[in-house]
């Protein structure tokens, strides 16, 4: 099973929604809206749901420090309605700097906050009038109407967060892991879910670019190098990759090693002609995922066209 993540950076909204419709027509089972600082992911997911007929739509992910729980529940309820009950709320801790510098929040015990947010959101979505006085504070809040069911997924990287997600979430969103890392993470998640008497779905983003024209291969690699370097400069992602055996490559990147970036691109991304990409995505599927989320990386002079090419040919 395959989904697709469509980020908005560099694309006009009408072009983005055209790609969403193309993904729905191509047979992707889910379409995800990352929140990367340009537009609100829940608003995007609601729009995705309003222009599709079949695919589930989700946020991948909303940082838990970016909204208070009442505002988050209102937005999620609207997205669930807009998508006729096909909406998944993906949450994650995010990162300390934006939490404190952008959202005026205090970065404190993020796993506790994720656990409390899920507990409170489920009570709100069930139609309860909710009062809480813990890390998440509410006094008598309730929705005016009960929305369609809203599954809640958690983004997880560290072993402790993977176990938390297995224990409390409906699904887990993995990111920036090679297939062997997926296997280890999936085992930990499913053990935690089994201990809690629950079943859980596991998905993972895979940065993907299909390129059939050899003259464009350099542009594709440069685009993937940029994303890989950018994300692995963040400690949470770097630590996750280091735990699965790529510490030497990360150290080399920190020292300016260009070849090490290429090694990490080859390990973490799916790039090449359609046969090569399909084979790489299959290795992710076999590593224990319920769904592989193709994350098209735009390249060249026409970002929308390059994304469309990947959407149409990756699966």
Task: Please characterize this protein's 3D structure.
The chain is of the alpha/beta class. 49% of the residues lie in helices and 18% in strands. Strands 1-2-3-5-8-9-10-12 form an eight-stranded parallel barrel, surrounded by seven helices. A hairpin with a 3-residue loop joins strand 6 and strand 7. The longest helix is centred in the middle third of the chain and has 17 residues, at 179-195. The chain starts with a strand and ends with a helix.
Oligomer: single chain
Strand content: 15-25%
| Average pLDDT taken over every residue | 95
Residue runs with pLDDT of under 50 for 5 or more positions: none
Structural class: alpha/beta
Please tell me what the overall shape is: globular
Largest sheet: 8 strands, parallel, barrel
Number of helices: 13
Could you estimate the helical fraction of the residues in percent? 40-55%
Give the spatial strand order of the biggest sheet.
Answer: 1-2-3-5-8-9-10-12
End-to-end Cα distance, whole Å, is 9 Å
Gyration radius, rounded: 19 Å
Count of extended strands: 12
Helix-strand topology string: EHEHEEHEHHEEEHEHEHHHHEHEH
How would you sum up this structure in a few lines?
With 315 residues, the protein is an alpha/beta fold.
């Amino acid at each position: 099973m395959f989904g697709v993540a469509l980020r908005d950076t560099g694309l006009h909204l009408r072009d983005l929604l055209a790609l969403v419709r193309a993904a729905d027509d191509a047979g992707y089972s889910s379409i995800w809206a990352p929140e990367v600082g340009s537009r609100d992911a829940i608003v995007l997911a609601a729009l995705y749901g309003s222009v599709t007929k079949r695919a589930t739509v989700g946020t991948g992910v909303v940082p838990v420090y970016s909204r208070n729980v009442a505002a988050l529940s209102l937005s999620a309820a609207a997205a669930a309605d807009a998508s006729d009950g096909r909406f998944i709320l993906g949450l994650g801790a995010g990162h300390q700097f934006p939490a404190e510098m952008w959202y005026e929040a205090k970065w404190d015990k993020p796993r506790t906050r994720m656990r409390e947010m899920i507990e409170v959101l489920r009570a709100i979505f069930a139609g309860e009038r909710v009062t809480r006085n813990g890390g998440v504070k509410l006094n008598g809040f309730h929705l005016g109407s009960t929305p369609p069911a809203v599954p809640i997924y958690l983004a997880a990287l560290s072993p402790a967060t993977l176990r938390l997600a297995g224990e409390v979430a409906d699904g887990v969103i993995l990111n920036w892991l090679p297939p062997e890392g997926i296997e280890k993470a999936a085992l930990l998640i499913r053990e935690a879910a089994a201990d809690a008497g629950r079943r859980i779905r596991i998905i993972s983003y895979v940065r993907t670019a299909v390129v059939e024209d050899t003259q464009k291969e350099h542009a594709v690699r440069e685009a993937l190098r940029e994303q890989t370097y950018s994300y692995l400069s963040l400690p949470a992602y770097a630590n996750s990759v280091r735990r699965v055996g790529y510490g030497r490559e990360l150290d080399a990147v920190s020292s300016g090693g260009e070849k090490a970036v290429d090694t990490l691109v080859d390990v973490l991304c799916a790039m090449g002609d359609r046969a090569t990409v399909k084979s790489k995505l299959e290795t992710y599927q076999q590593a224990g995922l319920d769904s592989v989320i193709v994350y098209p990386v735009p390249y060249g002079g026409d970002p929308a066209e390059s994304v469309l090419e990947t959407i149409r040919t990756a699966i």
